[in-house]
Amino acid sequence: MKWPSGRAWTVTRVAGLAVAGAVAGFLYYSYVGCESGGCAITSSPFLTTGFGAAMGLSLGWPSGPR
Q1: CA separation for the pair 54, 59 (Å, rounded)
Q2: Residue in 24, 50, 45 with CA at minimum distance from that of residue 34
Q3: pLDDT at 32
Q4: Which residues in the chain land under pLDDT 50?
Q5: Is the Cα torsion angle 43, 46, 47, 52 positive or negative in sign?
Q6: Most buried among 2, 44, 52, 55, using CB within 10 Å?
């Protein structure tokens, strides 16, 4: 198996971290989430999953030339 390099590696890393963040957000909703509906983010599985994906994107997004 050949590992991706350059731009392909960047896209793979960003997409992978976004998916991992979405899964982590959904798991957070499933195990910890707010049942009363009073919590802004954790009351909906869609919001929690999207927030997790956004956090994964923020971790994986390239910061520019090194």
Answers
A1: 9
A2: 45
A3: 87
A4: none
A5: positive
A6: 52
Mention every residue, 6+ apart, whose C-beta is less than 8 A from residue 41: 47, 48, 51
pLDDT, position 17: 93
* Longest CA pairwise span in the chain (Å): 49
Whole-structure pTM value: 0.80
C-alpha separations of 38 from 31, 33, 57 in Å: 17, 11, 27
Tell me the pLDDT tens digit for each residue of 36-49: 778 877 788 898 99
Provide the residue ranges of all domains of the chain, joining segments of one domain with +.
Answer: 26-60
**pLDDT for residue 60:** 85
Assess contact for 52 and 32: CB atoms under 8 A: no
